[in-house]
Design goal:
CATH architecture: 3-Layer(aba) Sandwich
Mean pLDDT: 88
Number of domains: 1
Distance between the termini: 58 Å
Low-confidence stretches: none
InterPro entries: NAD(P)-bd_dom_sf (IPR036291), Sc_DH/Rdtase_CS (IPR020904), SDR_fam (IPR002347), SDR_oxidoreductase (IPR051911)
Largest sheet: 7 strands, parallel
CATH class: Alpha Beta
Family: Belongs to the short-chain dehydrogenases/reductases (SDR) family.
Helix content: 40-55%
Oligomer: single chain
Strand order of the largest sheet: 3-2-1-4-6-7-9
Shape: globular
CATH superfamily: NAD(P)-binding Rossmann-like Domain
Order of helices and strands: EHEHEHEEHEHEEHHEHH
CATH topology: Rossmann fold
Radius of gyration: 19 Å
GO molecular function: oxidoreductase activity
Number of helices: 9
Number of strands: 9
Organism: Hymenobacter wooponensis
Protein name: SDR family oxidoreductase
C-alpha cells in the first residue's frame, strides 16, 4: 500500500457507530486510516474499498492481536500519529443482578482493553517523540446514571487513567485527550447488555425503556466524528473534549445545582419517581 498522506490514525471499534463514522471522516480529509475490529469480514463494504484504509482484526482483550495489528499498520503506513481508543460496550441493570463474570467482562473490555491497546502503541509514539491518544469515554464517566453503575465505573476509571497518563508521556511530546459524548444515535443500543432484575421492577424496566427512547433524539455519530477530527488537528491543551450540547448541558446543571436537586432531576428524567 502506497502512503499518500503524512497523517495516520488507528481506530478500535471501527465496524460501526462512532468508530466507523470517524474512519470515513478522516479518510475524506486525506488521512490514512487503520480501521480495526474483532470481525473484519463484517466491515461495511465501503470501508473495505476506500483508498488509504487498512482494515485489520483487533480484539482489545487479545494482546497478540493488538501487537499484530500495530505491526501491520506500521508496515503499511510507516508510522502512526493518532490512536483512537473507541471499542467498548455497556452493561446495564441493577448492580445486585449483575454477575461477577459480567462485571469482570465489562472492565476487561472498557478499561483493560483501552490499557492494552495504549500500551502497544506507546513505544512507537515514544520513539518518534510525538503522538496523540484519544479515547471515547462518556458523560457517564463524570456523572453516574441509574442502572449503569458498572458501566459508569469503567468510564470513571478510564478518565482517571488517561488523566494520570498525560503527565507521564508529556516528556515525549505525546498528548492525551478523552472524547466525552452524551447519548449517540448508533447501534450502540443494540450492544447494551441489559440484565433484568425482577426485585427492582418496575423501576428498572421503566428507566431502561426511557434510556433507550432518549437515543431517538441523540447526537449522530458523524457529529462526534467531527469533534474527534478537531481534537486531532487543532492542537490545544484540553484534556477532555465534550462532544455535543448534551454533555455540556449536563455538566452545567451538575455544577450549578445542589446535589439533591440535580439527583432529583436526573431520577425524574430517567423514569424514576
Amino acid at each position: 500500500m502506497t502512503a499518500v498522506s503524512t497523517h495516520t490514525i488507528l481506530i478500535t471499534g471501527a465496524s460501526s457507530g462512532i468508530g466507523l463514522a470517524t474512519a470515513r471522516y478522516f479518510v475524506q480529509r486525506g488521512w490514512q486510516v487503520v480501521a480495526t475490529m474483532r470481525t473484519p469480514h463484517k466491515a461495511p463494504a465501503d470501508l473495505l474499498t476506500l483508498a488509504n484504509v487498512l482494515v485489520l482484526p483487533l480484539d482489545v482483550l487479545d494482546v497478540a492481536s493488538i501487537e499484530a495489528a500495530v505491526a501491520a499498520a506500521l508496515h503499511a503506513f510507516g508510522h502512526l500519529d493518532v490512536l483512537f481508543n473507541n471499542a467498548g460496550y455497556a452493561l446495564a441493570g441493577a448492580f445486585e443482578a449483575l454477575s461477577p463474570a459480567q462485571v469482570q467482562q465489562q472492565f476487561n473490555t472498557n478499561v483493560y482493553g483501552v490499557m492494552n491497546v495504549t500500551r502497544a502503541v506507546l513505544p512507537h509514539f515514544r520513539a518518534r517523540r510525538q503522538g496523540l491518544i484519544l479515547t471515547t469515554t462518556s458523560v457517564g464517566g463524570h456523572i453516574a446514571f441509574p442502572l449503569y453503575s458498572v458501566y459508569n465505573a469503567t468510564k470513571f476509571a478510564v478518565e482517571g487513567f488517561m488523566e494520570g497518563l498525560q503527565y507521564e508521556v508529556k516528556q515525549f511530546n505525546i498528548q492525551v485527550r478523552t472524547i466525552v459524548p452524551g447519548t449517540v444515535r448508533t447501534d450502540f443500543t443494540a450492544a447494551i447488555e441489559y440484565v433484568p432484575a425482577p426485585a427492582y421492577d418496575p423501576y428498572a424496566q421503566r428507566v431502561h425503556d426511557q434510556t433507550l427512547a432518549s437515543y431517538a433524539q441523540a447526537a449522530t455519530p458523524e457529529s462526534v466524528a467531527r469533534v474527534v477530527f478537531a481534537a486531532a488537528t487543532r492542537g490545544g491543551t484540553s484534556a477532555r473534549v465534550l462532544a455535543g450540547s448534551q454533555p455540556k448541558l449536563v455538566y452545567l446543571l451538575r455544577w450549578l445545582l445542589p446535589h439533591r436537586v440535580f439527583a432529583s432531576l436526573l431520577n425524574r428524567t430517567n423514569g424514576g419517581q
